[in-house]
Each structure stands twice: as C-alpha cells, then as structure tokens.
Amino acid sequence: MNKTFDFLYKTFFTIIIIFSTIGVILGDLKGDFDLNAIIIIIIVTLISLIVFFIFDKKPIFLIVTIITMFLVSVIYNEYYNEKFILLINSINDFLLWAQDFINNKAIFNNIYFNIFLILLTIILSLFIYITVFKFKRMYPLLISVTSFFLYRWFWYQNSAFNYYYIFIFSVFSLYTFNRLKSKFIDWKREKKDDTNYKSKYLFIYSFIVTLTIILIAFILPKDNPPIKWRWMDDKVQTNFPQVTEWRNNLKKSQGYGKNLEFDLTFTPYQNQERTLGGNIEINNQLVMEVESDRPLYLKGIVKDEYTGSYWKSEEDQVKEYQSNDDIDIEKKNLNSYTELEYEVNHINLTTSTIFSSYIPIKVNYDEVYYSSDEYEIYTNKVILSEDGYSVKSLIPYFDKNKVDIDYEKNEKYLKLPDTVTQRTENLSLELTKDMPNDYEKMLILQNYLRDNYSYSLKPGNEEYDDFVDNFIFEKSEGYCTYFASSLAVMARTIDIPTRYVEGFITGDKNEEGKYEVYSENAHAWVEAYINGYGWMVFEATPAYSIPDNLPNTNEEETEDDFTNPESIQNNESKEKQLEEMLEENYNSKQENTDSKDQNNNKNNPGNIFLRSSFYIILSLLILIISLFLYIFVKENIDNKNFKRYNSKEKAKGYYKKILNILAYLGYQKELGETDIEFIKKVDINNKANSDLKYFIDTYIKTIYANQDLDYKSEKNIQIIIDNLSKEIKYKKGTLKYIIQKVYNKRSI
Predict the structure, then answer these.
(1) Same domain (yes/no): 199, 274
(2) Which of 76, 412, 456, 549 could be bridged to 477 by S-S, CB 3.0 to 4.6 A?
C-alpha cells in the first residue's frame, strides 16, 4: 500500500471529521462557519498532521521544540519584560474572551475567533492523529465524538444531527479502508492474487459501502413517538428531574406530546390501558396546585369510543397555538357567558397535558401547544414542575328554553359496540320515559346511579362480556370509572351524545389559598351535549358532590364572584417588574466583580501565566490518562480473548508483535517477500538472529503444518519478544522502548 496515498486518504477524512465537529461547536456560538473558517481548518489540519508525524517519527524534535520555546520565554521575560507582560496579558484576555465566548457572553472579536478556531483545530487534529494515525483505532474517536454530538442534539441543536451524518460517513470510510488495507497485507503475505485490489478500488469500495449505510440511516423515519413506560417515566423524573429537559421537545412531531397525554393509567384508578375496573389501592401524592376562585373539573383527555371493556379516543384534528393565542371554539351556543381564569402548576406528574375546565379560549404557556376538537390541550414536551401555565375559559349560560329545540347530533358520540346488552337499553328507556328533554333525562340517569350503587375501591376482578352490563346488573359497586362508563353508555342507548372524560377535580385549599390536587383526586366523569348549553358535566359517582356547572343566569351576580382579571394582571406585572429590577442589580454586581477580577489578573501576569500553564498541563494530563485507561482496558480484554485463541490465531498474534518490534528497529518486510527471506536480512546480534529463526520455524509449522503451539514453545516465544523489545531500548532509546511496549501490549 502506497504510504503517501495512505496518509493523504486519512488526512482528507480527518479534515471532514474536524469540519463536522467544529460545525457543531460553532452552531451554538456566535462565530460564523464561513469560507474563512473552512480555509483555516484545512490549512491548520494539514500543518498539524505533518508536525505530529515528524514529532512521532523523531521525538527528539518535540523535545527540542519544547526546550526552545521555554528558553525563548525566559529570555524574552528577562530582556523584554514589558513586552512579555503585554504578551501574557494578551493571552489572558484571549482566555477570558474564550470562556465568555463559549458561554455566549462575549462580544465577537474576529482575531480572537480565528485564534480560537486554530487552537480547536490543533487539539482535534492531535486527538485524531493519536487514535487513527498512531494506534489505528477508531473506537475512541467514534465513542467520544458521538457522545458530544448526542449531547448537543439533546440540548436542541438540530444541526448536530446533520453534521453527525458527515462525521459518521468519514469514520466509516476510514474504518472500512483500514480493514481492507489489513486484508490486503494478509493476501500479499499468503501470496494470493491481489491484482484486482489496488488502492483506488479500496477507496471506491469503502466510499460506496459507507455512503450506502448513511443513506439508509438518513431515510429511516425519526419522528416515531416514544414507547410508554409509565413506571420508568415516573422514576426518572422523580430521581433525575433534569433529564426530562434532554431532547424533551421534538418540534417536528406533535405525536410525541400526544403520546404523553394524560389518562387514568397515570394514576391508581386504571392499572391497564385496555381494561377498566378491578381492585385498586390509592398511593396518595400531591400532583398539582391550582389557583382558582372556585373548585374545578380539570379535563385531561376525552375518550369517545366504548369497546365493551375500555374507552379509547378517535383521532381528532388539532391546531397549533402560541402563548395567548385565541383558541378556535364552537360559538353557536355562546351568546352569553362569563369568563374564568385559573393557574395550574404540576408538582409530581409526568405528562404533556395542559389541564383545562369548561371551554378553554386562551393558554398562557411559554411553549407551542396544540388543541383538539375536543378541547384537549397538550404540548410537545413534558411539563416540568417549574413550568406553570394559566388558562382562560368561558362558562356559557344555560338556556332552558332551547333544550327542546331539535339539533343535528354527532354520531361519533352515539356509537356503541355489540357488547352493550338489551337490558341496559331497556333500563335506560324505563327510567327516562316521562322526561321531556335530554337534560332532564341525564339528571334521572345520574341520580339513579348515585342512589342505587355504592362506591368501593375493592369491587373485585371478575371477568365480563360488557363492563357496563356487569356493573349495573351483577356487581353494583365500584369507583369513578364504573359510574362514568355506565352513565355515558346508558345515555347513548337513549340517543343522548356523551363522552367519557378523565382528569382531576380540585381538592382542598392550602394556607396560600391554592387548591391542592392529589393522586386520589384523579377522576372520570361524563360530559353530555345539551342543546342550549353545549357539553355539560354530569357526576354519577356518589363519593363526589354534583358539580355546580350551571352559572347563575344573573350576570351581575356571577361576575361579582370573580376576581377582577385586570387587578390580577397588574399585580403580576408589578411582581415581574420587581423581579427584573432585582435581576438587573444582581447582573450589574456580577459585571463589576468580573471587571475587578480581570483588572487584578492583568496586574498580576505571573499568576495568569501560572494559571494558564496549570490548565494546559491539566488538560494534557487528562488526555494522557484517558488514553492510558483505554489502553489498559483494551489490553485486559485482548489478553482474555487471546487465551481463548487456537494455536494458529496465537501464532499470528505473536507474528504481528515481532513485525512491529522489527519495524522499530528499522527492518520492514517488503510486499511479496517471504518470511524466511525477511528474517535472513535481519541482523541484530547472534542471539536475536537465532531466536528469530526459531520463531519463524515454529510459526511456519503451526500455520502450514497444523502443529499445535504447546506451552513450552509459547513461553519461548514470549521470552524472544521481551528480548527483542530490550534491543529497542539499547539502540533507539528509552522513549521509543516505552512507546513500543505500550503499543505492542494491545496489538495482538
């Protein structure tokens, strides 16, 4: 393999890797990734790789360079002290600017930005040279940079995803090329016909394979909603609340938020997603606080299709809204109404649902949200405890004069499965036969269930053909899901549109005057469409009081019960103003402190130089320790794997080690050269020459004559390898010896 082509190939993809990595780094900063930046990256990468190659092959040059730089600094400080102090202050200014630049606080400085770009390119070039060029290992590069890309993507830098395609394409190209190159050498050694395996074919093949992988990954769908695992969601958010901020907002997919929408499976009232009922135990926990001037039914999710064993939702149309946008509502029955505003703050609840009451018309929330035809409101991220929201709703006035007017009923809210029994329908008809309108019929059905069935959390876990029929005629006790399902189904049998709603009711007020909502306040109820009003709440569960869902027809009396919304807004604005003033005072103090620190640093260049040197040395130590840890772990894994090898595999491993040692001693095996021919031209000393002949004889017998590599022979080979390593120390120096020992331990 042509060494020049090999170096240029790796250099080409190194530039692309650095380009993609710096692109992500600058994606969240103020610097432009323009033509100037690209030129800097290309030139600095080329120079860096050449310098690192020279230092690697001739370490004495590195030592001379370091000593020279140190002596120049000492001389410069001694004879040009003022200029030296000015230089140190400039370095310190750059370091302070770089720190602020990374934190997006610095004013853009083109000179400093170019220096920052050069240093970043040098650091990345060094890391790639050590991993790819020197040790020929892709895993440290792949793992570390992939982790960085994922970190940036989790924090909403969408460009990281696109740059990662470029990065992974380059890494796979290098990996494929290295693997094919290794095979190419093996084929040469085994004297196979390799006329069709030229360098250009290796390049083309690796390029095509990698490009195919990337294209497949690119076209795969990426907006699938997450799998629900309620227990894990709760545990993670409870113990690691900061994790919920990681990529918690998929702006391309409102289905993500829809998948985390609240239902009773979040609570103890429904253990399984597709089965209602059964014995339950309430583990009470505070889930939210609500600030309102009246108790509320807080709607979470509306379900409109009854299956016989559970309720589910048909797909609704949704619209996207920003904070304080007017929500589109059905206004034909809203000629007269009153407004209600309330605030909700989630405490221990992992959901994307925005809870609302009555007819929501406006939501004050910092993120984009969605509202369905059912007035279900949700965001595309989990709402955290510090992310409260306020909702403004309309409460329409009930007009009894319009109840008897015929209207077109939506069949969606009248559908029933075949499991609903005739006796359920007969009972509903019998109870409501004398009632003049839908409203009166709903009251009769509601009161019948409240008066004739008992509330229990232990109704049993019986099997049934139809959940409602089993409750009404067999069981006669249950909790909210039993009563709400029965009322909704019974109403539908007599042609009244109903829907099954899950959410919370507000609990008792605390000392601050806010309603505390606990997990025991989770609830299911029924909304029936009553002409002259719209969707009206009906409460069939006897453990709960019947809601006062009909506002007083006297508008003045009703409005007196409400707090003046303007006064609330004024108080909020004053509080906000005070918070902003306090924040400004704090920031100004911080700026004064920072400026004092900067002045002190400028007046003390010795401390600045020591601190800068400390950070540089610390960074280098961390890099070196990380590499040695990787080598140590890899060595242990390789040694364990090596013990399980058969004789041929072990012989090949020892063969690679010896070739590597001989390469350090200046003996390279040429392509097409046999092993015996190669060993004959090696002339170290009589003992080493004899050992090499012994090894080659053993190697040939093991590989080609299928002779087992016994314990004694293996021990002799290990001694030969140790003795050859010592020759490097005698002839090439201690540094080369240490490098070779480290490399050879993990080069099996």
Answers:
(1) no
(2) 456
